[in-house]
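User: Can you predict the 3D structure for this chain?
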Amino acid sequence: MLHARDAAAATAGEADRLLFLTQPDRGGRSPEPGLVSAVLRETDLPVRVVLRTEDSLEADAPGFARLLELAGAYVELGASGLSFGFLDRDLEIDRGTCSALAAELTGVPWTFHRGFDAALDARRAWRDVLALPGLDAVASAGSTRGLTAGGDELLERARRDPRVADLLLASGGLTAERIPWLIRAGVHQFGLADEVRQDGSWTKASVDTAVVRAWRLLLDDAHQLALGIPVD
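Assistant: Here is the predicted structure, written as structure tokens:
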């Protein structure tokens, strides 16, 4: 979601949580607090805000201080949570930095954003995030190239480890065909981006309410079927 119009459309389409960011073509950046305030006025849904100000997924002291300042502003405005994540020079999860930021934001839930997929060793990355404080979601497609490339391996990982299934927020080229398989594997969080824009473009189209509602119905039906409940 890029602006207040997106928030209003997603809310009308019955989304259950929103992620707010800017500059999606650069992996997402932190919006100015004034923009966050405008979005929050358009919806009563929980809103998480991206914490990222640089191209790199590494964190230095000045960058960390700025992120902490932004995080405080977002939470004070009413954001329900945050989305951030750091890797070190070896492309492993920077547990120290992630834990330090989470510790400064006690009680604020957060998502490890799609930067997670840039980690060199997915097995080790999942091991490292399981103990991070406050983390309740990991946005992943199993590959930086999206679910088309990484979906099968990600699905198998969720099947093998319920902890992964519980944290996984499947995103990055999500398709209707993948939903039932992910749900059967225990996945219950799904992230949509250009999938809810009519031409699939972040920059040329806003979120489409009808498309959001169609995904809402698809997900609800898939959950019911997975539980053995007939769908009308």
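The chain has a mean pLDDT of 93. The two ends are 31 Å apart (CA to CA).
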